[in-house]
Batch of 2 targets.
Target 1
Amino acid sequence: MAKILMKGNEAIGAAAIKAGCKYFFGYPITPQNEIPEYMSKELPKVGGVFLQAESEVSAINMVYGAAGAGGRVMTSSSSPGIALKQEGITYIAGAELPCVIVNIVRGGPGLGGIQPAQSDYNQATRGGGNGDYKLLVYAPANVQEMVDLVQEAFDAADYYRNPVMVMGDGMIGQMMEPIEFKEVKTRRELPSKPWITDGTKGNRKPNIINSLFLDAGELEDHNIRLQAKYAEMKEKEARYENYNMENPELVLVAYGTTSRIVKNAIDELKEEGINIGLIRPITLFPFPEKAFEDIPESCKGFMSVEMSMGQMIDDVKIAVNGRWPVGFFGRSGGVIPTPTGVKNAVKEMLGGAK
Amino acid sequence: MAVVFQKTKGLTDKEMHYCPGCTHGIIHRLVAEVLEELDVLGDAIGVAPVGCSVLAYDYLNCDMHEASHGRAPAVATGIKRVRPENVVFTYQGDGDLASIGTAEIVHVAHRGEKITTIFVNNAIYGMTGGQMAPTTLIGQKATTAPLGRTVEHSGMPLKVSEMLATIDGAAFVERVTVDSPANVRKAKKAIKAAFECQLAGKGFSIVEVLSTCPTNWGMSPVESLGWLKDNMIPYYPLGNLRRPEEDK
Ligand SMILES: Cc1ncc(C[n+]2csc(CCOP(=O)(O)OP(=O)(O)O)c2C)c(N)n1
Ligand code: SF4
């Protein structure tokens, strides 16, 4: 199939429909409005339903209902909207329903701004809602990857019966890049859904979609089961990319838009004779800890590079586990790190002159 | 021997947890009987609230979906949009529907969502131990209104049915109660009409049922029924507030 030029947000919508998404519930917020706009135009053409909810809280609860009723369903929002959706997300995780949630992150806290940021890392990976639950979180670095991961997200959601988040930022949401819609086919064996609420028809016992366990022992059992599922995700789903990892003096860790800037910085440093590597997490949960196992002897330390004030650095430190020093370079509020900024931080950590 | 009365298939055999004299049980039974009589038990998908009726999914013999506090109308919307051919309903208390979930119920009515809501108004928060609700009457005591509700402090009790009846998408709005056998029969008729409204695809339908909470009102079941009749009905008058044009 020929490549076409498409805006990131619209590409997400197109990829979702190609992945069989039939239902979308959302509420406008910049910088992701092209997603609901695209869905409102295109979903009816494939017999699907787009509905603009009265709030993010309602939108995610519509997703909860739709997922329970067996629909392939998605919602999207940006940071303050995702904060509101946390209530629904923990219920969906608790009731073990599949759905895809897109977060096109903007700066915070509070109303923040509308420029790109990565400051929802903790919200996405630590759970912004109550209780012990996890989302599978994908962090694409370009529009093509976003398209590919949307299909993956729907399949993983069905496979694990768990909400899956695709986390971009205002930059990839808004940028246009050439993309190709590869032939969509799942690499997973997707389970059937005997648990959905579609009416008993008098042929079976009622199905109940629920996250309430008033008995403490039962709730603990439920949580132990959920943790086993998250452990399986850790085992099977962690993804990352290595860049220039042959003989790095320092290894940078960066995801999404930031990883692209870091790659530029690495290329420029190479010309100056400084060899720096990059580990780019493609999944934020599970964090790709395996990537930190066979690190070349040349490595003197790690540095987390983020469009936030230091959130992923905790995961980097856990993965490094005291074996190397871990530095940090980050910009926030919608300020995008520059290759020069990254290069200076690298040189400073290596103890060299600027 | 001819059977003159038997348990409806709409209820499971599970023993209900409601306090003695609480009218939630009667209202469950009415919903269940109506679903059975309309022959839609196999098509029904109910949404249970947060509140004393949080376990309604254990009692009603149809597919059920538990919702977070107040969000049942949004959850029901998601279900109905995926399964328009099914009969979808919510069962909600006054804290659930008239407080935390006000936006959801207004907008489900506003969209004319083809679902049915059973709204149980007992003028108090039952499950959490008797705090004030938006529907608590002036002068009525609650654990968070120890001296009784006042207008200056908390405003007038919210008349949800009157409010929803002003919304064009609300096809059927009626307030009933279950304080006497005659009123129970009227309540059942209204609930049936509300579901028929959904089956006919006419829009959103809601039945507000004035209910008792002997435990948190601090009264016997019999006193509660009297208090409901003397205090609630005058402020929340019974009757139909809206029905589809051709039924008038
Ligand atoms: C988000 C959230 N806030 C608060 C609660 C606590 N809560 C449980 S039931 C309830 C009140 C329910 O009252 P009502 O809807 O009137 O139903 P009733 O118990 O009287 O039948 C509250 C506040 C909750 N479960 N979730
Ligand atoms: S607390 Fe009140 S509403 Fe709840 S079951 Fe008891 S009497 Fe009924």
Target 2
Amino acid sequence: MLSLIVFLPLAAAVALVAVPTSAGRRVFVWSWIAITAADFALVVAAWIGYDAGTGLAYEQNLRWIPSAGVGYHIGLDGLSLPLVAMTALLFLACAVYSLPNTQRIKSFVLLFLFLQTVSLGLFTALDLILFFVYFDLSIVGMYFVIAGWGHGNARQSALKFFLYTFIGSLALLLGFIGLYLAAEPHTFDIVELARANPLAGSGSYGALVLLAIGVGLAVKTPTVPFHTWLPPAHTDAPAAGSAILAGVLLKMGTYGFVRIAMPLLPDTWRHYAVVIVIIGVVSVLYSALVALAQEDFKRMVAYTSVSHMGYIVLAVGAAGILAGSDAQARSLAVTGAVTQMVSHGLLTAALFLLAGIFYDRRRTYDMGAYSGLAGPAPVFAGTTALVAFASFGLPGFSGFIAEFQIFTGSLASATVATALALLGILITAGLFLRVLHRVFLGELQVPDAPGAASGFTDLRPSEATAILPLLGLAIVIGVLPRFLLEVIEPASTTLIGLVSR
Amino acid sequence: MNMNENPAALIPELALVAGAVLGLLLGSWLPRHRQWWVRVLATIACAVGLAATAVAMRAVPETVFGGSFAVDTATNAVRFIVLAATLLVLCLSIDTVDSHHRETEFYVLVQLGALGTIMLVGALDLLLLVAAYLLASLPLYALAGFAKNARGTEASLKYYLMGALFGVFMLTGVTVLYGAGGATDYATLARTLPGASHAAVAIGVLAVLAGLLFKIGGVPAHFWVPDVTEGATTPVAAFVTTVPKIGALAAAYRLVAEALPAVSLDWPLLIAILATPSMTLGNLAAFFQDNVRRLLAYSTISQVGYVLMAVAVATRSDLALPALLFYLAAYAVTNLGAFAVVAELPHALRITDYRGLARRHPGLAAVLIVCLLGLVGTPPTAVFLGKLEVFAASIDGDLTWLAVIAVVNTVASLFYYLRWIASTFLAAPDREQNALVPAGRFAALGAYTAGIASLALGVAGGLVLPLISGSLLP
């Protein structure tokens, strides 16, 4: 079942290779939408069949490279299931969004189907090498998306993205090998490693392993100071690429913290939790301030992403500080972190798809060039405003649920840091309101673009169909979060149990 | 002493000898357009060798002919890799040498070179090692100048002079070790060398390793690699940069693991120090290479740096031998795959000539991407698994710093591999004469085979690793 969810897009891609390019774009786009919809339906079925509190479900453990301690071990629990669902939904949204105009559609569809398998695979992997394989392939896939369909300095940004995240992934690999060699018998299996806790009390060796893994995940997340690859990559990527990059690929880093770094290295994690909290807070504040100074809409969204990922880092760091807090608070922080991953995935993907509309209509993201867009494009303006509100954590949206839990859970153990991070919300709120004010209100003004019609057309059906469900789900989570939290909470409690060993 | 003289243990080697000798006789009688019979004979020789190796892999390891030649896991694995690689080279050379007036000579020399390579690995005696070194070298000097043009001749001469120089080093080393240890077979040397003069052992080991390092193409004996790769024809370049390295690396492993384990000389550090500049200089020199064959040449220099890591921890980690053998297999198919694409597009000499490849020949572009990303070590290709094993072995063997250097180098290498990959996606220039004219079917067949093998070996590594996880004979 789970393997089917993971490999359905790839299998479909292999089948589509045989279809000649001359078959026309409709064939490719509609089969793409059909495949992603089917995959999403399968994930929904898996969610319905999932019984929270039972730990790992849909587990599959096959021998792959036994002599190297590598297995094909996959499964779902409360940490991964929400992310799998979010991933499947985002790919569906990207397929719908790309319906009207994408060049070289065949390769684009194949690449996205490949990326979907890789992303779903990563969130289901319970083996370090399997995780690493998907982690690296996601970099390769996204490199080709940015280099092939981006604009501006696309190739340079793609190369920068590749080099940064690849360096990170190799650090990660060294850390994985460190874990592998520490366990007796040698194994890469996450479940077995979590049980064995091979680096308990190992001092500097454990610190080095955590450093390697931490750097690898921090680059991908990204946190300050490893975030510099992200703004150019986002700015120059196509809208669907940015949505996947921000919505799914960034979560691979934070997911790695809760799936690998915390349960497999509990001692070391607790020891260095303060460092992680500090990195989180710096990420939150620094990127929020930099976002405030941006003139480019997409760049601004990219920096707010770094800031929002900072909350997650803060939460997972605070969950490692035992002093001054009880297990319930720490578990709340972890639940908030996972909720934030889902919420941020939905909202940032929506924001990037909305940003793509600026480029689609007028070939520029420069906010100074636009104003008064609410007149000709009311739906666009309204949607953007709602997504922006949701994104800075207004009650009633998913972001609020996530951030509330993060702050409540972290306050006791990391009081000063949490208080400082609260300022981040203020800055984010300010910058989004300023953007809404500048771009949508006032005198109508749109920049000239060669070959574009005058005025600024509102959302097309395909764009609305892609973006509105993401916003809708964010509202559902904001108003009725139980269905999500009930899945996440047991897993957070288990995780906190592992960390406090 | 064990006087096992069972010729059946040497069927792969005998098949190559028979293929070469019969091929030479046959070729001198056949008219030029029928010389493909010699190619068939060479293919049969390789196929027989592969079949015999597959059988020998199940048999108990043994030493034959006075304990001078080991038939064990390492030998069998290298036999398999070398014979398969030779078959691939034969396949991708057909388009170039078919009906050539020295076609027979080509096949004969290739088989003799492969034979010498296999002998290097099995050798349990320094004198046999030197003989194998010569057998693995002399045919290649001739092959390098096969095209008989100015560049090829220069390459051949350079190759020969370097080879002669390092051959002399090697003989000197053998002499010194013989003087110090009183024997030339590894088993006796392992007993006597620890008690011998420190300086003599150091000099002897260094000199013998110098000879092997020349075959490996590692720094500082690497100067011939770029010139030969650029000057020789592409199939020859593919052969020379792949096959002899396999044998020489495994031979270096056997030498340090069997003759030097108890020597107080810090040879793991020595080899680690040789590995570091190999990967670093190879990468740095490849950075701004515009000529694809020179780029691949430097890439092979950096690749052997990674393999040398496994040699460095030969006695310190149980993971070293499978890591070495798997990396060699992965390197062979991946490197040959990249060369096969180059052979299929003989007019595309520079990176910029590959513009438009993804559009015009998507299959070849896919093979090129798989092979180049494979050389980087991106999963799930074979070299990734090889790198994983090598890194794990070197960290296990307390050479973590070497693994870190290798990681940094891997990242650096991305730059030039990606430069090549990126150019295949650019729009083709609107020139009259396009460089992307395919050479023929066979080089393409070789490219597809190698590309698929490179992926399959990575995914199905679980099936291969148990076969190479044995140990060397004592």
